[in-house]
Design brief:
Largest sheet: 6 strands, antiparallel
Helix content: 40-55%
Shape: elongated
Number of domains: 3
Distance between the termini: 52 Å
Strand content: 15-25%
Radius of gyration: 27 Å
Number of helices: 15
Strand order of the largest sheet: 7-8-9-10-6-11
Length: 403
């Protein structure tokens, strides 16, 4: 990428501009990116091998963040002083250290603090560097998920809260590369034991922060939507409320208990059979068990022109299927759309029931074939595909029964 300024005065005009996290051309979000960049000012050519730019995630256009412009300005002045007209510039890996968590010596890149829009414009903290992002692998939180003295909660898809008893609590996020991010200044509040547990999982910055619920919430005061699992539970409530309004029949059941399930729910941060099992249990209880079968029977008799003679034997999934059949004409489409509820039930059987090995293998094969995933070992893909299809199912139902 190249930036050309006919004169130094033209460069100074750019120098005075402050670029935000939004692309000036298309309005999409930018991310910080390490790039090979050529900069021409007047008749001086600078070739930077590693220069941080703000790159639009949609149109790909780039702009120069503030600290990068300081570096360019410094290089240009040296070239003028030394009489050079062209040269290659290399980042030598210098890392400035701020006055937070100095004993732990966490890995972080001070250039993030100065280049990611808004971080160094910090009126709240008097000591420089508080809002420096520090990156970790997802394993950083695994220990704390098992210790009852700690609380790790993803209230949104990738934005959460980490706390210890009543002593401290700090926010964290997960960026689009799956790295866990904390503010350096927040880490300074934590006790030494906790920091020592976290330290081995500290990793190099990938500079990715802006396209995240964490940045949106912390820097732009944009509220995140609840995590996907809770959204699906709320879709069920929207559907039941619409049916109650339309038919005066309630399908709600054990609402206090369901509320407790949702409040206690902890979204998985890493995906293994062990970590997704609580989600499977919660979703099964809320979506399949937490319904009034008596109410469903009454509703079915109201909406079905020719009721199935075996409807008294049906459980909740068959009634959901009957609801779907009233708004979708093709049987094949109904079977495809309702399938994730049956698969959720298969998952529950697989995890919670004592089954012969042959039966467990049969369930696994059915799940991976239905979700079109290569292997049962691809737990994250299985899990996300199941969530997406559950969400689509309830969207169909809500749209079909909401005036």
């Amino acid at each position: 990428m190249q930036f050309t300024f006919p004169t130094y005065k033209d460069f100074l005009k750019e120098y005075k501009k402050y670029h935000t996290h939004q692309c000036s051309k298309c309005g999409s979000l930018c991310e910080l990116s390490n790039e090979h960049v050529d900069v021409v000012i007047d008749d001086r050519k600078m070739h930077f091998k590693d220069l941080l730019l703000l790159i639009c995630t949609t149109c790909g256009s780039g702009c120069l963040p503030h600290h990068t412009k300081q570096m360019i300005d410094g290089c240009y002045k040296i070239m003028v002083d030394e009489g050079h007209y062209e040269g290659e510039q290399y980042y030598r890996g210098y890392r400035k250290k701020f006055e937070y968590c100095k004993e732990q010596d966490f890995i972080y890149d001070h250039r993030d603090y100065y280049n990611i829009p808004g971080l160094c414009i910090d009126q709240e903290h008097s000591v420089e560097g508080f809002l420096t992002p520090v990156y970790f692998s997802k394993k950083v939180l695994l220990y704390f998920l098992q210790d009852p003295d700690y609380n790790v909660k993803l209230g949104a898809e990738t934005y959460g809260y980490f706390s210890f008893k009543d002593e401290w609590g700090i926010p964290f996020g997960i960026n689009r590369n799956g790295k866990v991010v904390f503010w350096l200044g927040d880490l300074d509040y934590l006790d030494e034991q906790t920091l020592n547990i976290m330290k081995p999982h500290n990793i190099e910055s990938d500079h990715q922060l802006i396209v995240s619920e964490f940045y949106a919430g912390q820097m732009c005061c944009i509220w995140s939507d609840p995590n996907r699992e809770i959204q699906i539970c709320e879709q069920k409530n929207v559907l039941f409320s619409a049916l109650l309004s339309q038919y005066n029949i309630s399908l709600f059941h054990l609402e206090d208990e369901i509320g407790q399930q949702k409040t206690a729910y902890v979204k998985p941060i890493v995906f293994t059979e062990k970590t997704i099992e609580p989600t499977i249990n919660m979703l099964h209880k809320v979506l399949i068990e937490g319904v009034s079968i008596t109410g469903f029977r009454k509703l079915y008799l109201k909406i079905a022109a020719h009721p199935n003679e075996k409807y008294l034997e049906w459980k909740s999934i068959k009634f959901y299927e009957a609801l779907l059949g009233q708004i979708i004409a093709k049987d094949n489409d109904v079977r495809e759309i309702i399938a994730p509820l049956y698969l959720l039930n298969d998952f529950r059987q697989y995890y919670d029931h004592l089954l012969p090995l042959a039966k467990k293998n049969e369930i696994k094969e059915n799940i991976i074939n239905s979700l079109k995933v290569a292997s049962f070992n691809d737990i994250e893909e299985l899990y996300i595909t199941l969530l997406n299809r559950l969400g689509s199912l309830f969207e169909y139902l809500v749209l079909g029964y909401t005036p």
